[in-house]
Automatic annotation (TrEMBL), chain A:
<dbReference type="InterPro" id="IPR015854">
    <property type="entry name" value="ABC_transpr_LolD-like"/>
</dbReference>
<dbReference type="InterPro" id="IPR003439">
    <property type="entry name" value="ABC_transporter-like_ATP-bd"/>
</dbReference>
<keyword id="KW-0067">ATP-binding</keyword>
<protein>
    <submittedName>
        <fullName>ABC transporter ATP-binding protein</fullName>
    </submittedName>
</protein>
<dbReference type="InterPro" id="IPR027417">
    <property type="entry name" value="P-loop_NTPase"/>
</dbReference>
<dbReference type="InterPro" id="IPR017871">
    <property type="entry name" value="ABC_transporter-like_CS"/>
</dbReference>
<keyword id="KW-0813">Transport</keyword>
<keyword id="KW-0547">Nucleotide-binding</keyword>
<dbReference type="GO" id="GO:0098796">
    <property type="term" value="C:membrane protein complex"/>
</dbReference>
TrEMBL record, chain B:
<comment type="similarity">
    <text>Belongs to the ABC-4 integral membrane protein family.</text>
</comment>
<keyword id="KW-0812">Transmembrane</keyword>
<keyword id="KW-0472">Membrane</keyword>
<protein>
    <recommendedName>
        <fullName>Metabolite permease</fullName>
    </recommendedName>
</protein>
<keyword id="KW-1003">Cell membrane</keyword>
<dbReference type="Pfam" id="PF02687">
    <property type="entry name" value="FtsX"/>
</dbReference>
<feature type="transmembrane region" description="Helical">
    <location>
        <begin position="398"/>
        <end position="417"/>
    </location>
</feature>
<dbReference type="Pfam" id="PF12704">
    <property type="entry name" value="MacB_PCD"/>
</dbReference>
<dbReference type="GO" id="GO:0022857">
    <property type="term" value="F:transmembrane transporter activity"/>
</dbReference>
Length: 234, 439
């Protein structure tokens, strides 16, 4: 599903001409198979988010290759990336990233709107999705009127609405209490088992990592394949 | 993203900051209205000038002359052959000018005309028809006024101008002249020639009365006789005055005009006539020169008006820049989910276009209302304070469709131009920065 090879990345800080180069990722290689849940762990500042942002196309790599679904994304333009994200990727963020001026319904509907789906079809699909995450009675609420757990469910609904084969999640449980965290994890597991959706999740929480099939660790920008989780647990 | 969705999206965005959006629209409204109003003065002056020229002559009329000498029968034949010429009218001055009915008398401007051509050229009648037979005539609209009872030569002496005019009016013929028969006095207008005995007359019947001239001050008391009658008259006058019998100018035409089917043909036909070495004069020629001058004048006014639009567009630029800054987080989220830069750009361009459209729409409406108001009120004000009536059909402001189209184009163009940079800026919003903002 995902194939990252020889990926390196460095941030450039400061004014042009006398910029500081901060290397973050070094020669990263990562394979994620279809239907896998892979957890990326590592200390804060080790480069986990940077790796995920590269795979999401939010930043462009200078060295290395990224392939998703057999599509080589290294030379993609900004608009090609946008189209690719819309059609193939779902996102779950730590801070939900809902548009505050849009209702829960409108937030979930947004990818369908961007895709150009007709209004009646949009209504049916959005309502169905809200039902699936248990928010049908909150559809007219604005993000500010929802709890953290509810907001995260809206954002998951939005990530799922176009049925992406791959979901990228950067610390999805980071802003949730343990009750909501448990619910979210079991939902992710269910999605993976029922629909074969692939997950690449960043987490520093071992509880979260427990649902993953595989764990990789980033240490100071270098990626190490971890052991299978059941081995760790044992 | 479908247009309908963009539209909905933009509308809900605009509603979030109603006051700011309306203030921006107000500025564009005023700018656009100012542009139209200012230019409309130029358009009004131009139109007045054109109408002025056109009221003298018909647009499809080409006056034709020779470099030297008068136009002959032969020349007329040649003109009639030219492609695109609908009719050639030719007139001759007739050197006998007295007509009478009962005790009423007048000295008129008697002209012979080729009636079938006049009819084809569109001679305009107030009443009656064009002459068909030799002794039928058409008279000018004011002919009856000039037909007066005889009076002693010193009758007006000692009277004020007003009284004299009133007296003259009282003496004028009052009845309907149509189908009346008049006596045409066949005496040459050369005062040196004296005739013994009674003057020979010929009966002529008025079958048509010409249309009132468009100008208030124009006074038409001419008499149009047929060419057949003219020839008869000249042969009689020739016996009184030997000069008449030999005069070239009485055989040839003093006034020859070619008419085209429509004003659009005038230029082509003029070229063809000039190729045959005639000199031409047409309203189109005169208007062309006038138009150059007025077009420059109007362009100047539009330029000044456009500055107001430009100032208003700074408001649009500010509003859109603020909108982009305020919504950069939303933009970032949308880009993260999969909105292309093109979509983002279109959304913001659409928003500035809506502001522009509202401004242009309201501005045009305001301009039309103001224009109407000014044209309505100004004559009243002039009458009140300056004590003078403005000329009929007076206009200070005239907004033709072309002006509206120009103004709409300028306003929309400037609006889109000023919305371009903010929209382009929206596409460069950094996804990561936007997503990190509230963490
Ligand atoms: N936009 C940025 N500009 C410069 N340096 C950055 C930027 N984002 C992250 N970094 C640096 O890159 C390193 C890795 O960051 P990140 O990938 O966010 O770590 P993690 O998600 O593992 O906590 C950190 O040292 C951080 O300071
Ligand atoms: Mg991180």
């Amino acid at each position: 599903m995902i194939s990252v090879s020889n990926l390196s990345y460095a941030f450039k800080i400061g004014k042009k001409g006398k910029e500081n180069i901060v290397p973050v990722l070094h020669d990263v290689n990562l394979q994620v198979a279809e239907g896998e849940i892979v957890a990326v762990v590592g200390r804060s500042g080790s480069g986990k988010s940077t790796l995920l942002n590269l795979i999401s196309g939010f930043i462009q790599p200078e060295v290395g290759n990224i392939t998703i679904n057999r599509t080589n994304l290294s030379k993609f333009s900004e608009s090609k990336w946008a189209e690719f994200r819309l059609n193939h990727l779902g996102f779950i963020f730590q801070s939900f990233q809902l548009i505050p001026s849009m209702s829960a319904f409108e937030n979930v509907e947004l990818p369908l709107v961007l895709k150009g789906v007709s209004v009646p079809e949009r209504k049916v699909r959005t309502e169905e999705m809200l039902k699936r995450v248990g928010l049908e009675s909150f559809k007219n609420h604005y993000p500010g009127e929802l709890s953290g757990g509810q907001q995260q469910r809206v954002s998951i609904a939005r990530a799922l609405i176009l049925n992406p084969p791959l979901i990228l999640a950067d610390e999805p449980t980071g802003s949730l209490d343990s009750e909501n965290e448990k619910q979210l994890l079991s939902f992710i597991k269910e999605l993976n088992e029922k629909y074969g959706i692939t997950f690449l999740m960043i987490t520093h929480d071992h509880e979260v990592a427990s649902i993953a099939h595989r764990k990789v660790e980033i240490i100071d920008g270098y990626l190490r394949e971890g052991r299978m989780l059941h081995e760790v647990q044992r | 993203m479908k247009f309908k969705d963009k539209h909905r999206f933009v509308r809900s965005n605009m509603k979030k900051n109603r006051t700011r959006v309306w203030m921006t629209i107000l500025a564009s409204t005023i700018g656009c209205a100012f542009l139209i109003m200012l230019a409309s003065i130029g358009f009004a002056i131009h139109k007045t000038a054109v109408d002025d020229v056109m009221s003298f002559r018909m647009v499809n009329e080409i006056q034709v002359q020779k470099e030297s000498g008068m136009m002959t029968e032969n020349d007329v034949k040649k003109l009639e052959q030219i492609e695109g010429v609908k009719a050639v009218t030719r007139k001759k001055y007739t050197p006998a000018n007295q007509l009478s009915i009962g005790e009423y008398n007048t000295f008129a401007n008697v002209i012979s005309a080729h009636m079938p051509s006049e009819e084809k050229a569109g001679f305009e009648l107030d009443k009656g028809r064009m002459p068909k037979n030799k002794n039928e005539i058409v008279v000018g609209y004011h002919f009856a006024e000039e037909l007066r009872k005889d009076q002693p030569e010193n009758a007006l002496e000692g009277l004020s101008e007003e009284e004299a005019q009133k007296r003259m009016k009282e003496l004028s013929y009052k009845g309907n002249l149509l189908n009346e028969t008049l006596k045409y006095h066949l005496k040459t207008d050369n005062p040196e020639i004296k005739i013994e005995g009674p003057v020979q007359t010929v009966d002529v019947k008025i079958v048509g009365i010409g249309k009132k001239p468009t100008r208030d001050w124009a006074h038409d008391n001419s008499v149009f006789i047929t060419e057949d009658l003219y020839n008869e008259v000249i042969s009689i006058l020739g016996k009184q005055d030997p000069k008449i019998a030999s005069a070239d100018e009485l055989k040839n035409y003093g006034d020859v005009k070619a008419f085209t089917a429509s004003a659009d043909d005038v230029k082509e036909v003029t070229d063809r006539i000039e190729k045959l070495d005639y000199m031409t004069y047409s309203i189109i020629k005169e208007l062309k020169q006038m138009n150059v001058y007025f077009t420059l004048f109007k362009a100047g006014l539009i330029f000044i008006g456009a500055i107001a639009v430009l100032i208003a567009s700074i408001g649009i630029f500010n509003t859109m820049t603020m909108a982009v800054t305020e919504r950069s987080q939303d933009i970032g989220i949308m880009k993260a989910i999969g909105a292309t830069p093109k979509t983002v750009k279109r959304i913001f361009l659409l928003e500035s276009a809506y502001i522009g459209l509202w401004g242009v729409g309201l501005g045009t409406l305001l301009a039309y209302i103001t224009s109407y108001g000014v044209n309505f009120a100004l004559p009243i004000i002039i009458e009140q304070f300056v004590n003078e009536t403005p000329p009929e059909g007076f206009m200070l402001s005239y907004i033709p469709w072309s002006l509206t189209a120009i103004a709409v184009t300028i306003c929309m163009g400037v609006t889109l131009l000023s919305g371009w940079r903010p929209a382009a800026k929206a596409t460069t919003v950094d996804v990561l920065k936007a997503l990190r903002r509230d963490v």
